[in-house]
Amino acid sequence: MSHGRLLYRMTTYFGILAVAAACGGSSGDELDALRRELGEVKQAQAELQSTVATLQRTVAALPGARVVAQQKPRGEDAEKREVVRRIPIGASPRKGNELGAVTVVQFIDFQSADCRTAARLADELLAAYPDNVQVVFKHNPLPRHRDARRAAKAAWAAHQQGKFWEMHDAIFAGSGARITVEDLHRYAQQIGLDMERFEADMASPSADQAVMADRRLAGAMRVGGAPAYFVNGRRVEDRSPAGVRAKVEEQLAQRTPGGP
To answer: Could you tell me the pTM of the whole model?
Structure first.
């Protein structure tokens, strides 16, 4: 029985009882019968109210209802909830001011044409913001680039002699279509590496472990391609050099007195 029908019946019974009592036209048995039915209606109403309250509590406890209740308006509030990731730097190659206000972490594939286009971005950022920016390099050799992992290990081996960025620049200055072992040896000689140590480091399990540790980190952070950039732990959606610079400027403005 619906709530509206219960109210209607109760109103009707009260009206009948009032008329019967005023007119004295009904027998005692009829009044008793009306009172009994009215009592049943009241009990049904109480049961219905209890059922409604139970349903309300059940709906409120549903996961979907909880999410809806916690939703907030988009816009500025959504920007404030931007995901900020804690990215371990460890022994990764870096350049710039380690105490600067902004840290840019880049995930790079040495055989990627897009990465080659953006190869000078680190130097450009440091030239534009010499006191405020640090750039950190992470390897992300994509499986479809068969020479990328070998190039990453060569860059890691150069890093063991303090010449990562020199190898970085030499690799990206090459043709890029293929990166052969001979190419990497030539680059190592050009930048003045100890060749015996370079070859041993490049072939060592440590080189592969270091490169794949970065690759697994990229996977855990759902970095699907290269290049990819994080500025103070915030993913840069526009991965062009202009997009990265805009994100850097946004972070600098937020950390400058009087900034937004």
So the answer is: 0.68
